[in-house]
Write a structure and sequence with these properties.
The protein is an alpha/beta fold. The protein folds into two domains: 2-51 and 357-384, Urease, subunit C, domain 1; 54-345, Alpha-Beta Barrel (TIM Barrel). It contains ten helices and 22 strands. Strands 1, 2, 3, 4, 5, 20, 21 and 22 form an eight-stranded mixed sheet that branches. A hairpin with a 5-residue loop joins strand 20 (363-366) and strand 21 (372-377). Helix 5 (198-207) crosses helix 6. The protein is globular, with a radius of gyration of 20 Å. The relative contact order is 0.17.
Length: 386
């Protein structure tokens, strides 16, 4: 069956042009300019709105009433459906610090879901965030479950065969050895919840770390600004061109001015956006979720004590909106930072992350305010408000 998107503004990694996209089955078979298409099959008039690849989120813990960490497959799918409503077509469900058995149950649940029919955003694998992080930079992570990396423990998670990314603090005991072991297996090693200085950051890079998790949140950064300033892990990775950075681009975790500065340093090829979502879709109020007392207000989630952010309530459409509208990132690069760049970081860029012949038919249509009007996942219509 052929479906043709017409009369849109097609976003590629290089430019935007008026035209459309042709889909057959689960794949894109053609991208065209102007009106160069055949009137065959289903025609979808995009009415001048943007056509983009589906959004890819590499760090997402769940949504309102939909935890990805509790080992409940109904909650997992409830979350994948909610995020798909906002344009996410592929994601990595992400764990948090918890007991070994709880983390293992969450990973096994993710694996089971990957063998079932798709519901909403596709699951590409699992992201382990914890338990190998610095308690000093715990943020909303449970400090009772932050400790050194022991292969007797973490290899049980890795041996499930679905872990695509591990976030850990390089200064924590055993973590550098873990990076040396896992990075050659193609697992994305990401510095996270770390108090590392410049020289520890260099050691981490040498050990196999190539990425940083939610930069400028729960990480060491520039300090003692008027007396012997010292850079933290955040500035250290900005200095190293080989390291990619992840930012929670909701306009709260990182101000738009800092997002723009990092974009000027790293560019869209080396910086990607993520939600780090926990309670997406939740109205303002108090909650008990993910083993903690949480508060949602001012479009952000935090610990009830107000001592730290706790993930976010963001969705991927909001990330693009913040980058484009507030941080003044061109729409081509704002979209690249939530499509091709994260896809490349987990080596999925050969089939998702761009609109091109032979790529999976993961497609969004959205307006100038980044409101999602239409979403297709692997050639199936998920959402249609055109």
């Amino acid at each position: 069956m052929r479906t043709t998107f017409i009369n849109g503004r097609v976003i590629t990694p290089e430019t935007v042009f008026r035209g459309g996209v042709v889909v057959e089955g689960k794949q894109i078979v053609r991208v065209f300019k102007g009106d160069d298409y055949e009137k065959v099959g289903t025609l979808i008039d995009c009415k001048g709105n943007f056509i983009s690849p589906g959004f890819v989120d590499l760090h997402v813990h769940g949504a309102y009433n939909a935890e990805f960490t509790n080992g409940n497959i109904d909650d997992l799918f409830r979350g994948t459906r909610l995020h798909a409503k906002h344009g996410t077509t592929a994601l990595l469900p992400t764990t948090a610090s918890a007991s070994h058995d709880e983390v293992l149950a969450a990973v096994k649940c993710i694996k089971k879901a990957m063998d079932m029919p798709n519901e909403g955003a596709r699951i590409l694998g699992a992201h382990l965030e914890g338990n190998y992080m610095n308690p000093k930079c715990a943020g909303a992570q449970n400090p009772d479950y932050l400790y050194g990396a022991d292969p007797a423990e973490y290899m049980e998670f890795i041996d499930t065969g679905i872990v695509r990314r591990v976030s850990a603090a390089p200064e924590v005991e055993g973590v550098l050895d873990m990076a040396r072991r896992l990075a050659p297996q193609g697992i994305l090693m990401s510095m996270a919840h770390s108090d590392a200085d410049y020289w520890m950051t260099v050691k981490a890079i040498e050990a196999g770390f190539t990425h940083i998790t939610h930069i400028y949140n729960a990480q060491s950064m520039l300090s003692n600004c008027y007396f012997y300033p010292q850079v933290g892990i955040c500035e250290s990775v900005l200095l190293h061109d080989e390291v990619t950075v992840e930012a929670i681009c909701d306009g709260r975790h990182v101000p738009p001015q800092l997002l723009r500065l990092m974009y000027k340093i790293k560019g869209a090829e080396k910086m990607h956006a993520t939600t780090d979502a926990i309670l997406s879709g939740a109205p303002d109020g108090s909650y008990r979720a993910f083993g903690a007392d949480l508060l949602v207000e001012d479009e952000v989630c935090m610990l009830a004590s107000r001592e730290a952010f706790a993930g976010s309530v963001a969705t991927t459409d909001r990330l693009v909106r913040t980058l484009y509208k507030d941080a003044q990132v061109p729409i081509v690069d704002a979209v690249k930072m939530i499509t091709l760049t994260p896809a490349r970081e987990i080596n999925e860029h050969h089939h998702i992350g761009r609109l091109a012949e032979g790529y999976d038919a993961d497609i969004n249509v959205f307006d100038d305010d980044i409101n999602i009007l239409f979403t297709m996942i692997l050639g199936e219509v998920f959402n249609n408000n055109l």
